[in-house]
Design brief:
- By secondary structure, the protein is of the alpha+beta class.
- It folds into two domains: 154 residues, Ubiquitin-like (UB roll), CATH 3.10.20; 195 residues, START domain (Alpha-D-Glucose-1,6-Bisphosphate, Chain A, domain 4), CATH 3.30.530.20.
- The protein is built from ten helices and twelve strands.
- The strands form two sheets. The chain has a seven-stranded antiparallel sheet, with helices on both faces.
- Helix 3 packs parallel to helix 5.
- It holds the Pfam family Fer2.
- GO terms for molecular function: 2 iron, 2 sulfur cluster binding; anaerobic carbon-monoxide dehydrogenase activity; metal ion binding.
- It comes from Hansschlegelia beijingensis.
Length: 404
């Protein structure tokens, strides 16, 4: 541990720690963890790896979990910092402490302060006690004693109890950039957390509004069924969601509004983008529009799908024209290059068409047979796309190919 060097040339630091105003002079290189321990004697913030890996030093900076061993104290000037000591009277932290004791979720206790801060954030955000999402959320907090089983069970039990009492998860709006760099942009976590009103629900809080798409593309496909039958099925939102890999419906408050999302599987990690959509249809034109918005953590998306069911080449066939517009926000936008999105959408559409034809023909889909939904796997889609392009490239350059 490197103690801060105190010299008259230190920069002035004014911040709030556990609800108390603090003013000190610190060297620019002083880390927040050292400042808390050495200057304020708040030794509940533990130092382990000092590389931001173990999570033992996790504290709240303006309400967001942060690695204090990597955060310079000087950048937190004007911010509000809450350490494990500042959560002594916090209702949620008290529930977690009791659950940790009940589930034998601690042994040596070295990781426990940072683990409780991370667990508190998970309980606030997760809508359900999903073990996989809890384990992913704890990936930045290492424990060398317990094997994590008791910790996961403790967090699950607190989420279950709070949701049973009608305490809804909070929608957390977080700015991009390092924690502490957005001083006073969000209120700090209060020392005592009050239960949210039972009527507040995450999906219902997602607003659906008009927007100008950043990118637009068109998809067309043919279905071997009459236009009236295809358009009729498109009017059943749940049936359409069953045909789209990873999609799910949670509620249909009205024929014009639906709440749900899509599950995305990345290796062992499964996330769910939850949101809401407004639905409108034009029976005379056999056309419709779906306008939606959703989010998962710090990433968000707005999308618009306009569809029209036209007559196909034969009386028993239909051509479906889709116009898709979308805007991505947050880290997700880094992977949303238009060309890649179009290619992935093409492969996703192919899977949707296969399921759609099975549904129209009365054949059972995998979920109808009791098979679990694996969720949309973009890695598998992109891998298939890349393999297809490589194969096409080799066909063009080999002898006898198109480009000799």
């Amino acid at each position: 541990m490197n103690a801060p060097v105190r010299t008259p040339s230190g920069a002035a630091l004014d911040l709030t720690v556990n609800g108390r105003a603090v003013s000190r002079a610190v060297e620019p290189r002083t880390h927040l963890a050292d400042f808390l321990r050495e200057e304020l004697n708040l030794t509940g913030t533990h130092l382990g790896c000092e590389h931001g890996v173990c999570g033992a030093c996790t504290v709240l900076v303006d309400g967001e979990p942060a690695r204090s061993c990597l955060t310079f104290a000087a950048v937190c000037s004007g911010a509000s910092v809450t350490t494990i000591e500042g959560l002594d009277d916090d209702q949620l932290t008290s529930e977690l402490r009791a659950a940790f004791t009940r589930e034998h979720a601690l042994q040596c206790g070295f990781c426990t302060p940072g683990m409780l801060v991370a667990a508190r954030d998970l309980v606030l955000r997760l809508p359900e006690p999903d073990e996989r999402r809890i384990r992913v959320g704890l990936a930045g907090n290492l424990c060398r004693c317990t094997g994590y089983l008791g910790i996961v069970r403790a967090i699950q039990s607190v989420i279950e109890e709070r949701r049973a009492r009608g305490v809804a998860p909070l929608l957390v709006e977080r700015s991009l950039g390092p924690v502490g760099a957005h001083v006073a942009s969000a209120p700090a976590a209060a020392p005592t957390l009050r239960d949210a009103a039972p009527a507040e629900r995450t999906s219902a809080a997602v607003g659906v509004s008009e927007f100008v798409p950043a990118h637009t593309f068109e998809q067309r496909f043919t279905v071997a069924f009459p236009p009236e039958q295809v358009f009729g099925l498109f009017g059943d939102v749940r049936a359409v969601a069953d045909c789209l890999p990873g999609a799910f419906i949670e509620a249909t408050p009205s024929p014009e509004r639906v709440e749900g999302g899509i599950r995305v599987k990345l290796g062992p990690i499964t996330a769910a983008f939850r949101g809401a959509a407004s639905v409108s249809r034009d029976e005379a034109e056999r056309a419709g529009r779906i306008l939606g918005a959703g989010a998962d953590g710090r990433s968000g998306a707005q999308g618009e799908i306009r569809y029209r069911v036209a007559e196909g080449a034969t009386p028993d066939a239909s051509e479906v024209i889709l116009t898709v517009g979308y805007t991505l926000k947050g880290p997700l936008a880094q992977f949303g290059r238009p060309g890649l999105v179009r290619d992935v959408a093409g492969r996703l559409t192919a899977a949707f068409v296969r399921n759609l034809e099975d549904r129209l023909a009365g054949r059972a889909l995998p979920q109808d047979r009791g098979a679990p939904s694996a969720g949309l796997n973009p890695i598998r889609l992109v891998t298939g796309l890349l393999l297809g392009r490589i194969s096409s490239w080799f066909k063009r350059i080999r002898p006898g190919g198109a480009s000799r």
